[in-house]
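note to self: dont lose this again. the chain is below, predicted strucutre after it. 571 aa total, dont forget to put it in the shared folder this time
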Amino acid sequence: MLVSNHNTTEQTDSVPSPASKPSWCFGDLSAAELMPQLQRHLLDQDIKANWQLVWLNNDGRPVIGLLPKVSWSVYPNDEQSSSDLPNVYKVIKNCRDTAVNNADNSYASTTAYMSYLEWQEELIAYSNAQKANYNTSYINNEESPKPSYHHGLIGFIGYDIAAHELSPADRIELAMQPCASLAHYDIYLTPTAHADTGWTLKSHLTNDDASENTDNKSSDILINTLTSYLDELDRKLSDKYLNQPQFKDASNITPLVLSPRWRKLDYQQAFNLTQDYLQQGDCYQINLTQKWSGSLARENNDVQPTFSLINYLPTLHRNTKAPFAGYMSVDSNDGDYLNISSSFNADSNHFELLSCSPELFFTFTREIDTGKHSIRTKPIKGTMPRGVTNEQDDLYKQQLVDSEKDRAENVMIVDLLRNDLGKYAKIGSVKVPQLFAIESFSNVHHMVSTIIAELKADTHPLAVLFGSLPAGSITGTPKKRAVEIIAELESMPRGAYCGTMGYMNFDGSGQWNVLIRTLQANNSSNDSLNKERHINLWAGGGITVASDCDAEYQECLDKVGNLLSVLAQKT
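---
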């Protein structure tokens, strides 16, 4: 529990509409630059608080979640022994209790064992209850082509758990890390409205967050304390004696060299086996990926500067400017906040996810007048590198435009997603307004198509999200057989890579990426004194009978080459 020494008397709103608190410039740092500073500062203030910072770039409408009200973290169930039972996962649920002033009892943690469907149903029930309890107060009435987070769930769902559910009989391996994590963020930072810079603290604290006997004093303490923390950080970052460039300079991070798991020959062998399956008619397309890995070692017993993946976020995002980038960290200690430090402490066993994704999976929108939900997806299939000169860049782009192979791959995935959405959409509403558009990013050109649909009235957007994973653009088609072949050829779990990260507001609007160009970090062992963290990064592409091995291998390098260079500080 946060204990306040803040003397402000501002009252937290007891109505469920978001209460906007003071705004801060934080030295005019970007969100990616702010995140490491914010994490370290909050830990310095209260290392026992359940800080679970999460950042979504959200195509230019960012959000930073601070302190979740409820979180669900899903892990593989080591005790699962009977194949006759449905797949059951270990779900750790943590609830913030602002009515309790004793720090040792401020979080209630429970562990349950449930199926993927049961967890999905619990999330939907929770979301519906939040919306129903406050009538229309949580519904956003802002007309905008770009959706934004205004109150709901934020987190990720990994590839492994979705592939495991798609083909349970194949017993697809799960990585020993969180399979998924979603949290209700009722306290978060958003950019200040009608201003070029700055952040505003938003909260949805209500009377149910405190007992009647406390008259909402605990909620006031929570917000006032957090406000005081942010005031102090703003002063530090705005100090005229502070050397601002140090916050934007990559020189204070340790070079991180990631090595490929496969040599070129290994990739060739996997490619040839993929071609065998394609020639036999098992699939029309298979997304074959490969892994780079390395270790991040802590130096001089420092807790944060060289041991956390978040410190690489500023330079990575500055290099990629990925529209659907994001970062989050998940604690792996069964929610025992009595005996451990925060999940951001390098000594705790925690999982980090840092995504530089350019790919949108789903955007869910809600019509203000009718309440109808619509969905848009933009699969990427087709890649060319950026050129060194403008002439070369234009040439590569035109080659992608003219590529019959990439068009064929793209249309296969479009058809797959149309079929996926057809299960949840109103009849006749699935449309493809744009095929084979070229979008350019820092290191590659991509071929992107757009699919839209209107959801059936009785379909919850979370059910669509869960039911459509993993994304067809990173599996192949048909999807079920593709994930089975992927598990065989890649011979190790992907973890969160190729899953999804994003948010779902309680009114059913939301936005989710595809977790490509994504780094994952785990402690090398459960030993809290271990001095290394294991880092991995993946890249791949869709293989068809028309694919060329050398070109596909080079495409993998094109996709992550800039990330590898930034991490190794070669740029």
